Structures are given as C-alpha cells and as structure tokens.
Amino acid sequence: MAEQNSLIAVGTGTGTSGAVDRSSIATLPATRKRILTGIRPTGPLHLGHCAGALENWLKLQNEYDCYFLIADYQFADHAQDLARVRNAVWEVALDWLAVGLDPERASFVIESGVPEHTELTTWLAWFLPIGMHTELTTWLAWFLRDSADVVAKKVRVMYAGPPRGANEPGEVEADPVFGYLDAFDNDAAEVSDLKERYEVHGVSNAELKDRLTQVLNELLEPIRQRRAQYEGNMVRVREALEHGTGRARVIARETMERVHDALDLGYLRKYK
After folding, report:
1. How much is the pTM?
2. Domains of the chain, earliest start first
C-alpha cells in the first residue's frame, strides 16, 4: 500500500525580507503576502500531490512569498524508521524541483532546521487547541519518479469498475479510470467521446487503460527528465534546502522575539 503524504494547513501573513545575507541567499520581494504550507516526508510524491497541491503551488510561487515546508518533525508515527524520513526529505525536494517549483522564487524549508516552529507550537498550545491532521492512504499510486513501464504496469492492474464485457455498456461513475482521465487528460473532447461510447456501446478496459497510460506518461516524462538532472546535481538540491531554511529561520527568529515580548519571557533582562 502506498502512502499519501498529508498536507499541513496553510498560513498567511505579510512578507518581509529580514536580515538575510544577500550574497549567499536569493531574496524575494518584500511586498508579497506570505504563505507557509508543506508535506510530511513519508516518501516520494505521486500524482495525487500534483492534482491536490503542486499545481496550485506552481501558481502561488509567482504571486506570494511562499515557504514550502518538508515537515520532518511531524513523523512520530514512523519514528522507528528514521532512515526513511531522512531519505524522504531528499525525495520530496527532488520531486518539487522536478515539477518546476523554483527555489529562486520560493523557499524550500526543512522543518527541523527551524526549531522556532516547535517552540511556537508549544506556546500556542496554551491558548489554542492543536488540530490533528489526517493521514490519507491509497492502494495504488503513480509516483512522479515512476518509469514509463512502471506506470503502464500499475494502470494494467488498477480496478476499472464492476465486471463487464468489452462491448457491454457501463456506468462512468463506477469506473475510477475516468476519474484519472478527468483530472489529467487535457483533451476534454476525447474524454467526452470515451464516456459517451462507454455508456452507450461499451468501451473495453484495455482501450481505457491504454489512453490513461498515454496521458500519464505524457504528463510525467518532463518531470522524470528534470528529476534525473537534479539527481545528477545533488549539490544544487542541498543549496536549495539550505537557502530556503535560512530564509525561514530569519523570519522565525523575528517572530519569536515578538512572541517572547508578548508573553513577557524576558526574565533575564530584568533586575540588571
């Protein structure tokens, strides 16, 4: 069973550039509103992340001061497999770069590199209930790194609705292949034709799955190519994580200074 990584809630605020060393860390416009969102590093990302998050992130990085968080703190349910977490941090970063997220326009942040997040969570727990996230799972997932052959094999074994003959009409809503075609096939006319023929005359599962295989591989091929390029230059991946985490740390420190003042935590500044 493949595991779908949970998304953290999105927060917004007013972006500031902070005291960032501009010689080593690319800066972002200070006037844009800020967004923090992220993913738990449970493994490589899959198509569900594209449809559910990454397509939106690609747009948001051009409009907002985005901080994309690899939430490696939020992994207590897999604490017995720390090697998986450590490797998944790199897998997530590679997949972000492969889909086109740009570390020059957004910040890639390793959560454990910004310990102020944990401190802030502790103080917020005094005043706010901490909601529990839900771990979503899926029985079959197409990972962004899957080869064309692997994609084809996964499509062949996927459930395609109740048993029926190739020339027997069926219900579109009962066949999950159409859900994927609706989400990822850019040829709406072709999908509409398939649905009509499926319900009136019947369309074989082989034809439907061949179409889905073609659609998914056309989507994933440029992602696979970009991922391979970054896998050959892991120094660039490390730099993206280092610089993004550095930007976040500057802002987090400024935020915690305000929190400390608001909670009157400056004990050692008194009675001098």
Report:
1. 0.73
2. 2-137+233-269 (3.40.50.620), 148-223 (1.10.240.10)
